[in-house]
Amino acid sequence: MNDISIQYISPLISELLASEILNPPKKWWHLQKMLLKRIELVLMPFYYFELVTESPKSGLQQVNVIVDGISGVFSLYDRIELTNESPLNIPVFQFEINPQQAIQICLNEYRRVLLNYNLRRRVFVAIKEILIQKKLFLPFWIGYFQVGKKYDFQVIDAINGKSPSVRMRSAFLSAFSQRKT
Length: 181
Hints:
Blueprint: E1 6-8, H1 15-22, E2 34-55, E3 59-68, E4 74-76, H2 99-121, E5 126-147, E6 150-157, H3 168-176
Parallel strand pairs: 1-5
Antiparallel strand pairs: 2-3, 2-5, 3-4, 5-6
């Protein structure tokens, strides 16, 4: 597993739709108006794993997991279509954690998920093996806002238009530090 292929996912959400999602119409009860100053599409690094699990009741099953390549945030993920071609002119953040760290995070966090599941369902599911491991770049739309005299940002997944988990905010803050001023 030392030679990990790099894959990309093309964005499905257009800039116009992303602007609408990030900047919905304000309600009258909002005290401060958030002004969308700018929007950009970026590629965030992730490690993608396909795990094989085994249980006495359901036998072998496959699970897809991603680990963010900057701060190590773990998440379950739906199977996705990958390509080898990088989208042009999109800023790409670089990996900060190595593949061995990502494997450890993946296994430890998924074991924690399984422990919770096993205790609730009273079954035993175990990780059998890591079937596939890839480096992956996922597209995200970032909206930069001005709220009064302060600035903030919001992020949506450029594939499904949903906001990533709160834990991913730290990954984006770390990614911003990679940019040269």
